[in-house]
Amino acid sequence: MCGVIGIYSKSAVNKKLFYGLNSLQHRGQESCGITVSNGDRLQREKGMGLVIDVFNEENLGNLEGNIGIGHVRYSTAGGSHDYNTQPLMAFAKGIEMSLAHNGNLINHQILRTRLEEDGVMFQTSIDSEVILYLIARYYKGDIVEAIKKTMKLIRGAYAVVLVLKDKLIAFRDPLGIRPLVMGENEEDVVFASENAAIEIVGASNIRNVKPGEILVVDKDGVHSDMYSNCDKPCNCFFEYVYFAREDATLDGTNAYNFRRRSGEILSQEAPCDVDLVIPVPDSGIPSAIGFSQKSGIPYAQGLVKNRYMGRTFIKPTQKEREMAVKLKLNPLRHVLKGKRVVLIDDSIVRGTTSANLIKRIREAGATEVHMRITSPPVKYPCYYGIDTPSRRHLIAANMKVEEIREKIGADSLVFLSMEGMINASHGKVDTFCKACFDGNYPVDPIVI
User: Fold this and answer.
1) Catalytic: which of 2, 32, 382, 433?
2) In this structure, are 317 and 213 located in the same domain?
């Protein structure tokens, strides 16, 4: 899970990209970068850390031009190193190009080996460089044809923005697993992982980039081409459960409404005799509101969030995640003391956060701590961009619900049913990727 943005404008894009990346910061906190074209050459600035820390007036001032792309990174394929920071750059056949990618290729290692055998020397350890090198290899004056030939080879999830000196290109995998949206106004055409990044720069008329669609923006306007037409998209369900910001509307589903409805449905599937409904901020808040409103149990803020902490799930190591939970959330003793509470969270992946929070909530004086999760158990690894590469890291893959309850120390534990989650989305069961819940992968992760 990363965040990408691309802007083609009649004016300078450096600060627009900066503001857009800030609105996508929740999608990746390890590194970030911006590439801008001034019409003659590409200029890039990048670094490890948050957008607000990497960029300043000086290095933003170096990014002169009206076409550009940006990226915030959460590592999946490849480690958390400076050399893996995106956007990536390539020089081939007399042109410069720069690429930013959200997603994960399941066959990148095979493709990388083939390219290395042909003499290609890679500068990073990430799958995104395979996409860039394939496009550069196939480019013979027609960028769309080069992308189509690349898409024919790569498999998995990808939402990509690509900048040449005079063009901005965006394309999305044939199943639409990773999100990509487009917006425009009289001055700008913007592509981004979520609509917030588009709205913050003042663009509107937002639509989804279609699965398999290739969009090229140049001086003549916006041109759409299709690599393939998708009858059954497989939009990632975990986007709505956790990753997307509350104000994100992706492929017709709004994250806030989905989470609120999930809480309402869960209150009916698993009622609880308690005094207070307590959310785990931030993604658990809409669900707790829905649970409270439907059940009639008072809603209360029982955990204070340190707003300067990032998201604990996407910390790269287990030790960092455990420390981040302590720093991020602190129980409100005066709210919790002597109360029976139900704790609402979006998911249990490794169990780190839940066990830590329940222990501390009890220490703050709560007499009972029940837990309700607004998604089914995460039992299977994701090969399309979420950092759960092995089932040994997933608590629900190795324990039954009752065993998980004992492990995290809750008085009771219930997960939302798959049917409930589908109903919360108002969607059809065959329009989502649910592989992390049911093991049915839309793209076979075993590549020979």
Assistant:
1) 2
2) no
User: What is the average pLDDT across 199-220?
Assistant: 95
The domain in which residue 356 lies consists of 258-432
Same domain for 227 and 269, yes or no, is: no
Could you give the percent of the chain with pLDDT greater than 70? 93
Q: What is the DSSP string of 299-349?
A: B---EEE-TT---STT-SSHHHHHHHHHHHEEE-HHHHTT-EEEEEES--S
In which band, very low, low, confident or very high, does the pLDDT at 310 lie, cut at 50, 70 and 90? low
Q: Which tokens in the block code for residue 445? A: 């992760």
Planar angle of CA 142, 143, 148, nearest 5 degrees:
105
Any residues with CB less than 8 A from the CB of 39 and at least 6 apart, and which? 65, 66, 67, 165, 166
Domain harbouring 374, CATH code = 3.40.50.2020
Could you tell me the pTM of the whole model? 0.92
CA distance 368 to 346: 20
Q: Mark whether 8 and 97 lie in a shared domain.
A: yes
pLDDT tens-digit map of 353-395: 899 999 999 999 999 999 999 999 999 999 998 776 578 889 9
Please indicate whether residue 2 is annotated as part of the active site: yes
